[in-house]
């Protein structure tokens, strides 16, 4: 009887743990796998009474993940802190705010625990549902970046406004009214002196290279792109961006301004990425502080347009 009760309780708890872990955007709940294995092992060898201890611990951990897991604040995490410099690592750092917002390692090209998150986010934000739509979206972004002149942003600290075109081909300028916190952040990111009334951030549209990298990382995670294709796309995007800006600070300036201009809707996801941007811009452990901007980057294995040269 005790064995049957332990088996049922263990099965229900393990099932709940699997569902919560699968639905979570974090890897932490999967670290409780030894508890699930202990439940199965103890029941199998006839030590049903002892099995209740890991069952209780697993149930408590699963409940904690439901309550506080989704509230974990953005954090800088690195899967391989001592990894050597590489073009792929440099490219991943460009899109680090999106992973940092989820408190996930920024330097993993393929991130299996984010498959469901990527699938939902790519469809919701870009209408991307498969390989074909992914490549079409990447090509569209690439074409927009190379299709016109530069788009500058004017930040007026005195009036607390940010004014500019989200893209060079935009018909009209957009004006964003800034909060005091945003004014302070932009002043710090741009290095403007306290007495300065305004600054101009040139060619801000190249922050969208980070969006291309994010799409590529999502495609790699969802297995829509091969490793060779992923490597080529990352190298091409990284090399082009490195030629456009002279430092991570310039990318940080453009990212902040472009993000404010592009995303008018403010929600939990927006706030998390905004917080992540602050970490990337100022935290000494940030790859934007530690990786050399001008490091030699490997060239892509093909020439021409970004995705059009890839095999179908």
TrEMBL record:
Protein name (Swiss-Prot/TrEMBL): DUF1266 domain-containing protein
Any matching Pfam family: DUF1266
The entry's keywords: Membrane, Transmembrane, Transmembrane helix
Organism (species): Streptomonospora halophila
Domain DUF1266: residue ranges: 122-293
Membrane-crossing segments per the record: 6-23, 35-64
